Amino acid sequence: MESGYPLAQEVKRHSKSRRRAPGSEMSVSAKRSKPTVVKLFLPDESATLALGARLAAQLRPGLVVFLSGGLGVGKTTVVRGCLRALGYPGRVKSPTFALVEVYEVCSLYLHHFDFYRFKRPQEWVDAGFRDVFDSDAVCLVEWPEKAADELPPADLQIRLGYAGSGREVRISAHSAVGRQCLKAWST
Q1: Which of 1, 129, 132, 172 is the most exposed place for a label (fewest CB within 10 A)?
Q2: For 64-147, where are the E strands, in sequence order?
Q3: pTM for the full model?
């Protein structure tokens, strides 16, 4: 099926078959188990950028990270901090209208998605993004709930919320790979 979204073809060009380390697949019992969780408080934008830098240290091919929270809570700022830590010098903007921005940094293909404009989950399928999530690309996804159950499960879920003038963050691991990331993060 031909995608109605022009960038889907560009995204597919960088996609490879997704290969995860043995034991990193989510089993049915893993999906139902309680996720590993880290809670943080971010007092300002520089702390949010630092969170992105810490995330960058844990990125590996095939990692899927969901970024959730209200408008303006800092999801794109986390991605910006991540890309800056990886050495990307260019502008990092929210892909709200383009749906995806693709970056090639440090031998990684990083896809930054924003599904805020989706009206129904089927739009994710229609956009042709499934191949990207079945590849070695790193996928950072804003507004994953807009694609609902069409998306593959996240390895990490980062939930940001307002807390006074700062942000509360809850990071949960939902796969063996995600738990490895949080374990390394905590040390």
Answers
A1: 1
A2: 64-68, 100-105, 108-114, 138-142
A3: 0.81
Q: Which CATH number fits domain 36-186: 3.40.50.10260, 2.60.120.620, 3.30.1330.10, 3.40.50.300?
A: 3.40.50.300
Distance CA 4, CA 108 (A): 26
Q: Which residues contact 41 (CB under 8 A, 6 or more apart)?
A: 163, 166, 167, 168, 169
pLDDT, mean of residues 57-79: 96
The conformation of residue 144, written as its DSSP 8-state character, comes to G
Q: What is the pLDDT of residue 34?
A: 59
CA dist list (Å): 70 to 73, 118, 145: 6, 15, 12
Largest CA distance in the chain: 47
Q: What angle is formed at CA 129 by the lines to CA 116 and CA 80, rounded to 5 degrees?
A: 55
Cβ burial 80-105 (10 Å sphere, 16+ → b, else e) = bbbbbbbebeeebebbeeebbbbbeb
186, pLDDT greater than 50: yes
CA–CA separation, 30 vs 147, rounded Å?
22
Strand pairing category for 138-142 and 64-68: parallel
End-to-end CA distance of the chain, in Å? 46
